[in-house]
Design a protein that fits this description.
Helix content: 25-40%
EC number: 3.2.1.37
Number of domains: 4
Shape: globular
Protein name: Xylan 1,4-beta-xylosidase
GO molecular function: alpha-L-arabinofuranosidase activity; xylan 1,4-beta-xylosidase activity
Domain PA14: 458-600
Largest sheet: 8 strands, antiparallel
Number of helices: 21
Distance between the termini: 82 Å
CATH class of the largest domain: Alpha Beta
Radius of gyration: 29 Å
Keywords: Glycosidase, Hydrolase, Signal
CATH topology of the largest domain: Rossmann fold
Length: 864
């Protein structure tokens, strides 16, 4: 009898186990049901292993490994071949949410196609997954912040609209489809905009509730409620004393309770370490207490490895396993929603062909976005557009022939890049003459002149190469080659370094003898994704490993004329698509007068200057005059460029300044010394063509500034002051160099009288109609902007953007532009409830072509 009962119980257990397994493996169930079922079958150790970005497999249950970390800031990033769109701050200048949406549909196509290939290969590495940590919708509060280049500007409404369109373009949520395309991520929640150098210990404090809800939170709320974003990333810094990734106020009360968000919260990378590290916040004694606090606050997924200590946290009573279950269920549900847990053949999005990656169609979209981002700031005497025919045009400046600058940061690798020099050369008339003279670098007063031709190996000019199809340089080489020109090697698009060499898991040695013809300082200049060791005369002088995409590296040393130096470069594949660009050159002093003399015959000088993503960006190691760890300590154009432009002006040259930057540049002197100024941002793979089309009039610019361009540093409050007083056009009372929303065209627009009902009831939509006439001789686009100001208020925004529309108007024609102010757009701060809400108010409604008063007409609107 006992044996019979045991047998029946065993059958029931097996039957129950099989039934349970059939639920999570059966895609006829909802992702929530499948996740609920699966989490019950996991051990605590297995649950914890799934809560870190590099999630381990659970083979007994058929759970594959998964890496949650992927990037697509302006194109699929750090994973080889991809279409590279302009940097987000440039795309914000388009004021075209429709174009942005179209661009990110293309980006998500490429992400899906690349993931399908990786999955078929059984590869689950970083930058290969379907969870895309984009977009960055923090407010660009201060132009010194290096990561402002990743944002959509300084205005909460603009950042909200653009951010929502990024999310919708990426996720392509469709209730008629079984699976999600990819998942986007709103970052970095929420009060976070520099400085970079102290972000792991900085406390953003004493911030008024009004600034929090009126400025810092709106883009995140919009992405959660309107965009239906699937992930939110918490920030590094503290907010009012609590690390953002452990902030009950931000993550529990606001995000979960007020907004009803039930998606995944992921930590910024190593942010949990900052809770307890000596150089971090030091709010917690150890990893277990830090990790437990983060999960209890709502951070489900860690980018890092502190969460391994959650097992200890459970044992110590710091957290209950049911709290861990809640997070794990969210993570598993997301994976089921993406189809990542099912066979590829069953997931429609996984059938996206690889041919979309870097396709001609997507290149056209990148060019279109670059065109739309071009922002003309100055055009004295109508010098632009340039006329073709019989002209001598000089192209100068550190950004004229720099493709890497155009890619911005968090970027992929395009099939090809059209530099500004390339674009101008192609756009010139047949009988025009071009002179190229770089003249100066971004900041330093030295230039690098290539002397690669002074390298010779035993096999001939340049470097000899040996390749192994392993990462340890072991055995007989799989291939050899001779490189007679500077290296430009990349495995993007399934392009091997040499015939017979693997696309992955390979190593290489490059050898040559460098015999300089002069004594000077030489620079070994690298741009690579992988691991490099540089040896000179058998001694290792430089080594580095770039783990997060391609980055520049350099080594300098003094050499003597006629002396021979044995050079060896050892390269190892690291991850994703390998890249190795290398050149060797002498440093020489910038000679401004010599450069001016070289362009003495030029009718026009196009100076492509500004700065670079190698200087501004996320927590960088750059410390040069005007720059600190990726932030800027000075907002003026670097001195050597100012001096070059002034010298050209003093020599009587007509200078067209093309400024490439991801941040506002104070160009007060340049407005005097240049005939025209074009803000080109970091314009992506086709940016050089877009610049040339604007310069020669093949495209009529319509970009508008998403940030204020200040005159000088004295106009800015303290960088670490997070209160909004004095920050951005909404609170700045001075006179900027170029205001928010500003940009010129090759035609002119005249606004007719705005039509607006004098009053609407609370909860209703106010409708605006304004006729806009193109009074010029060519077709153009105008960005019609609507600002609100509460009548009689003295402590709120001077004005704040609440609607806009980019409109194409043929020459001589009038278009009646219709805009709406919905109840959401009519929300205002209520001091009595400390909330943003729609209520009885009287507003000044301001409509025009920029935020400056002279460009705006006003009507009064009452909410009854």
């Amino acid at each position: 009898m006992r044996n019979k009962i045991t047998y029946l119980l065993t059958c029931l257990i097996v039957s129950g186990s099989s039934l349970a397994q059939s639920v999570y493996k059966d895609n006829s169930y909802s992702p929530a049901e499948r996740a609920e079922d699966l989490v019950k079958q996991l051990t605590l150790e297995e649950k914890v292993s799934l809560m870190m970005d590099n999630s381990k497999p659970v083979e007994r249950l058929g759970i594959k490994p998964y890496n949650w970390w992927n990037e697509a800031l302006h194109g699929v990033a750090r994973s080889g071949l991809a279409t590279v769109f302009p940097q987000p701050i440039g795309m914000a200048a388009s004021f075209s949410p429709e174009a942005l949406h179209t661009a990110f549909v293309a980006v998500s196509d490429e992400a899906r196609a690349k993931n399908a290939v990786y999955s078929k290969e059984g590869s689950y590495k970083r930058y290969q997954g379907l969870t895309i940590w984009t977009p960055t919708v923090n407010i660009y509060r201060d132009p010194r912040w290096g990561r402002g280049i990743e944002t959509y500007g300084e205005d909460p409404y603009l950042a909200s609209v653009m951010g929502v369109n990024v999310v919708k373009g990426l996720q392509c949520l469709d209730e008629n489809r079984k699976y999600d395309k990819v998942h986007a991520c709103a970052k970095h929640f929420a009060v976070h905009s520099g400085p970079e150098w102290n972000r792991h210990s900085f406390n953003a404090e004493n911030i008024s509730p009004r600034d929090l809800y009126e400025t810092y939170l709106p883009p995140f709320e919009a992405l959660v409620k309107e965009g239906k974003v699937k992930e939110v990333m918490c920030a590094y810094n503290r907010f009012e004393g609590e690390p953002c990734c452990g902030s009950n106020r931000l993550l529990t009360h606001i995000l979960r309770e007020e907004w009803g968000y039930d998606g995944i919260v992921v930590s910024d990378c190593s942010a949990i370490s900052d809770f307890h590290n000596a150089k971090g916040h030091k709010t917690h004694p150890d990893a277990a207490s830090a990790s437990s606090a983060a999960v209890l606050s709502g951070t489900d997924l860690e980018c890092g490895s502190n969460y391994r200590s959650l097992i200890e946290g459970v044992k110590r009573g710091l957290i209950n396993e049911k709290d861990i279950d809640r997070s794990v269920k969210r993570l598993l549900q997301a994976r089921f929603e993406l189809g990542e847990m099912d066979e590829l053949s069953r997931v429609d999005w996984a059938q996206t062909p690889y041919s979309v990656v870097g396709s001609d169609k997507h290149d056209s979209l990148s060019l279109d976005m670059a065109r739309k981002s071009m922002t003309l700031l100055q055009n004295k005497n109508g010098i632009l557009p340039l006329k073709r025919g019989g002209k001598v045009i000089a192209v100068m400046g550190p950004n004229a022939n720099d493709s890497v600058m155009q890619w911005g940061n968090y970027n992929g690798t395009p099939k090809r890049t059209i530099t500004i020099l390339d674009g101008i050369r192609s756009a010139m008339g047949k009988d025009d003459k071009l002179i190229y003279e770089q003249g100066c670098s971004w900041v330093e007063r030295k230039l690098i002149r290539s002397v690669f031709s002074q390298c010779k190996s035993e096999n001939g000019p340049g470097f000899s190469a040996r390749y192994w199809n392993n990462t340890e340089f072991k055995g007989e080489p799989a291939a050899t080659a001779q490189l007679s020109t500077p290296f430009h090697l990349c495995t993007s698009g399934a392009t091997v370094f040499a015939p017979g060499v693997n696309l992955t898991d390979f190593s290489a040695v490059y050898q040559s003898v460098f015999t300089p013809r002069e004594s000077s300082d030489v620079v070994f200049d690298f741009y690579c994704y992988g691991s490099v060791k540089l040896l000179v005369d058998g001694k290792e002088v430089k080594s580095f490993t770039n783990k997060h995409g391609s980055r520049p590296q350099a080594h300098g040393m003094r050499v003597e004329a006629g002396k021979s130096y044995d050079i060896e470069i050892r390269f190892q594949y690291f991850a994703s698509d390998a890249q190795l660009n290398f050149d060797i050159g002498f440093k020489e002093e910038c000679d401004i007068q010599r450069s001016v003399a070289k362009v003495k015959d030029a009718d026009i000088v196009i100076f492509a200057g500004g700065i670079s993503p190698q200087l501004e960006g996320e927590e960088m190691g750059v410390d040069l005059p005007g720059f600190k760890r990726g932030d800027r300590t000075d907002i003026e154009l670097p001195a050597v460029q100012r001096e070059m432009i002034k010298a050209l002006h003093d020599a009587g040259k007509k200078v067209i300044f093309v400024n490439c930057s991801g941040s506002p540049i104070a160009m007060e002197a340049e407005t005097e010394h240049c005939q025209a100024i074009l803000q080109a941002w970091y314009p992506g793979q086709s940016g050089g063509k877009a610049v040339a089309e604007v310069l020669f009039g093949d495209y009529n610019p319509a970009g508008r500034l998403p940030v204020t361009f200040y005159r000088n540093l004295s106009q800015l409050p303290d960088f670490e002051d997070y209160n909004m007083a004095g920050h951005t056009y909404r609170f700045f009372k001075g006179k900027p160099l170029f205001p928010f929303g500003y940009g010129l065209s090759y035609t002119t627009f005249k606004y007719g009288k705005m039509k607006l009902d004098s009053s609407v009831k609370v909860g209703e939509t106010a409708k605006i109609t304004v006729p806009v006439t193109n009074t010029g001789s060519r077709d153009g686009e105008e960005v019609v902007q609507v600002y609100l100001k509460k009548s009689g208020e003295t402590d709120g925004p001077i004005k704040t953007l609440r609607a806009f529309k980019r409109v194409r108007i043929p020459a001589g024609k009038t278009v009646k532009v219709e805009l709406e102010l919905t109840p959401k757009q009519l929300e205002w701060w209520d001091n009595t409830t400390n909330t943003m809400r729609t209520m009885q108010n009287t507003f000044d409604v301001l409509v025009g072509g920029s935020s400056q008063e002279k460009d705006l007409q006003k009507k009064t609107l009452k909410l009854l």
